[in-house]
Design a protein that fits this description.
With about 210 residues, this protein is α+β, with helices and mostly antiparallel strands. Helices cover about 50% and strands about 10% of the residues. It has nine helices and four strands. The chain has a four-stranded mixed sheet. Helix 7 runs parallel beside helix 8. The longest helix is centred in the middle third of the chain and has 18 residues. The radius of gyration is 17 Å and the shape is globular.
């Protein structure tokens, strides 16, 4: 069975070491050091990881992340590369499900944070795995968007989401859809067909989860 989560993790760790701690990322205001610390918190600090998605805990989570970010960068990357087996999100039973999209997105956060990047030619199996995550992500991220959004990944599937209204078609490969729907619209290579104002609203919407 392919281990896409492990492959994306290893590629990200290699890239982090190549670029060093101060390289920019797609995540506004975050350097490679900040991103590495975020991943360490997510996998190794369950007391703070909830703050990634729960607003009441975000202050505590950010304080923990900043303390972790002050560690030597090589140590941070080593912890990203080798997660603990007890981690709720990175043990052998959950790793592929919980981390394929996570590490693909963050790998691209670093790749696309610099000028001159281009999309990778992803394996068909990885694209299929990303589509399985893009579909529920679309339902969640666009559930309140005021349009009838038709999301299509040619060769993989399609679905209709949104609150209804003017029709808008969002077409891209699964990896690009995952980036777009996770709030990386400005670096995702997608096709948007529909009223210009609605398309622009979607391109600038806060879709981060």
């Amino acid at each position: 069975m392919p281990r896409y989560a492990r492959a994306e993790r290893e590629a990200l760790a290699d890239l982090l070491l190549t670029l060093g701690p101060d390289a920019p990322t797609v995540a506004e205001g975050w350097s490679t050091r900040d991103l590495a610390a975020h991943l360490v918190v997510r996998e190794r600090r369950p007391d703070a990881a909830g703050g990634i998605v729960l607003p009441p805990l975000r202050g505590y989570a950010e304080r923990v992340r900043r303390r972790i970010a002050a560690r030597p960068f090589a140590d941070l990357v080593a912890q990203v590369r080798r997660p603990p087996v007890w981690s709720p999100v990175s043990n052998p039973l959950t790793d592929e499900l919980a981390n394929t999209m996570e590490f693909f997105v963050h790998h691209e956060d670093v790749r696309r944070g610099r000028p001159g990047w281009s999309p990778r030619d992803l394996a068909a199996g990885l694209q299929a795995a990303l589509w399985r995550r893009a579909a529920p992500l679309a339902r969640l991220a666009l559930r309140r968007f005021p349009a009838d959004v038709y999301v299509q990944a040619p060769g993989h599937g399609q679905l209709s989401v949104g609150r209804g209204g003017e029709p808008l078609r969002l077409v891209a490969a699964p990896g690009e859809l995952v980036l777009f729907l996770s709030g990386r619209q400005r670096v995702a290579r997608v096709q948007l067909d529909g009223p210009a104002a609605v398309a622009q609203r979607l391109r600038t919407a806060d879709l981060g989860l």
